[in-house]
Amino acid sequence: MRIHAKTAFVQGNWMKDVQVTCANGIITDVKANAGPLAGATSIDVLLPALCNLHSHTFQRAMAGMTDFRAAGQESFWTWRDLMYRFIGHLTPDQIEAIAALTFVEMQEAGYASAAEFHYVHHQPDGTPYARLTELSDRIFAAAAETGIGLTHLPVLYTYAGVNQEPLAGGQLRFSNDVDRYLRLIDDCRAALSYMPDDTRVGIAPHSLRATSPEDLARTVQAMPDGPIHIHISEQLKEVEDVQAKLGQRPVEWLLNNAEINNRWCLIHATHMTEAETIAMAKSGAVAGLCPITESNLGDGAFNGPTYLEHGGAFGLGSDSNVRISLTEELRTLEYSRRLRDMARNVLVVGEGSVGKTLYTGAARAGSQASGRDSGEIAIGKLADLVAINRDHPALCALKDDQLFDGLCFAASDNVVTDTWSAGRHMLKSGRHIARDAITQKYRTSIKKLLKVI
Ligand code: ZN
How far is the CA of 93 from the centre of ligand 1 (A)? Predict the structure, then answer.
């Protein structure tokens, strides 16, 4: 696979007339000032593509259903109630169809891969399917159909709260004890034999609400390598519950009781004290930030300035998938702090481009959290790449050094022309090559679902 780019961002520098060659999903050669390349795809600006490090694909089908105010004040917890009713009816076919559409939309937004935090495992009454991996297999199938790079993260979800309340209702589909969970992980790893080489399987203890300290320790010990993702400190009530039960705030407790390192991705980490923020920044873990969902759910704003000042790594996730837009995730992250602090250009240490800080930071750390060796255009890296059209009116006035700011603050995702996931060229001229068939399947599935919810 060969690409010729007029401009490319190669290992931190803007270069002209760049040839990129890939084989088996890996970048094998990068040459600047090199002229056209026979048989190459010619594009305008080539960037390393981001990993979307946190997604629950099935929630895409709920987008727009929860943004009205019912009796009393809408909150995260009432949103969650509707989500449980919704998943009470989802079938395996519907889960696959929704995941495929969601992956297409991610690639069209410029993501090369997705880390799927997958927690619907069983039938609606909690009985496992004949194959324990039935619903994980549907995620693998959707990834294979769309060509997106997948880091599959089956979720350990055992309790309904920190006091180890039993699961009920819609939550029954999530339920596993550690033994069955470890079997599920093993069975998911078997899929690696037929999935593309860049597919990864990691673990995801859901949260300190849904996993006990003992189960968390046992699960982590059983998995000596690969990514570990956990939801943490998203909501104030969760912070209060964990503090009451475990005597420490969630991030504080995790840092003191688990060996947090660069395998870990702490999703949200919204509510942290200054001391927690600094300690987490130094731990090597990635903060998995989901600015659009965190805004939609009214979670709060991440303490980015302190975190960045202490060298913290962060990536971006689309989480509830209420809207899939990489440019909007980037600007929402910065704007949430500007509004709160009444200041401009907040998420950059010292002087420099906010867009570049956010994009390149998310590329690096997203790759770390997904277990993908990508995030940079360099020989030996996975060919996770995205092309953008700088002739677009939103970008055509900008110099190279301003392109990340243009992408972050001025453009929509329609500046994305091509996306490669480990060299698989699935997005061409701004359109996913399987979009029509996948959209049609999605519409049919949703019609059936709406008849029963
Ligand atoms: Zn989530």
Answer: 22
